[in-house]
């Protein structure tokens, strides 16, 4: 079976699962709501206006991770054997699954970035970022959310469990990343969540720039997906 019908089948799964539609909505709602609160509470004299506008991405990416995790873990609850019987090429199936995950998250992520930017500029007024810088942040927002969803998808394929994946990633994002960031200096900037969020800052003291930070996150994501594809190919269902 060629890639297109495999992708079409995976796309039908993605858009018919209620939990996945809820996770997509959660990306937009969590990011916009927490960003609006951060913008309203920002000290316009000291705060980074761009990061104040996109502060909620830290919470929206949890919903993106839940989306990527659920999309893959649902296969391990009994459907994977049937899926692979129809698509014996496991790498082609996993590529189609990853594409079906990436496209809706990217679309929702870009929409989220634009909505968050408009809301943030309305709250901050003249103290907000310029449109050029803001649009860079909006695009970066969409890319970061997509990469984190795919990172979670690859890790889920390795661990074969959505619960295990969320048990690792959510505490890491909410606790470990911040603790390591406070204690380790520039090393923490290479973590996948922190590297990708450099694009959401007006200025950054670290060695990474806006796009090199996203490239680091993309590298983490590529390793995760390759590991997930390798595990699917070498292990029994």
Describe the model:
By secondary structure, this protein is an all-alpha fold. The longest helix is centred in the middle third of the chain and has 35 residues. The chain has 10 helices and no strands. It is elongated, with a radius of gyration of 18 Å.
Query: Describe the biggest sheet?
Result: none
Q: N-to-C terminal Cα separation, in Å?
A: 19 Å
Rg (CA only): 18 Å
- Round the mean pLDDT to the nearest integer and report it: 87
Strand tally: 0
Structural class: mainly alpha
Low-confidence stretches: none
Strand content: under 5%
**Backbone shape:** elongated
Our count of helices gives 10
Which sequence of SSEs, written as H and E, runs from N to C? Answer: HHHHHHHHHH
Layout of helices and strands, plus pairs?
Blueprint lengths: L2 H14 L1 H24 L7 H5 L3 H17 L6 H7 L3 H35 L6 H29 L2 H23 L7 H5 L13 H25 L3
Helix pairs in contact: 1-6, 2-4, 2-6, 4-7, 4-8, 6-7, 6-10, 7-8, 7-10
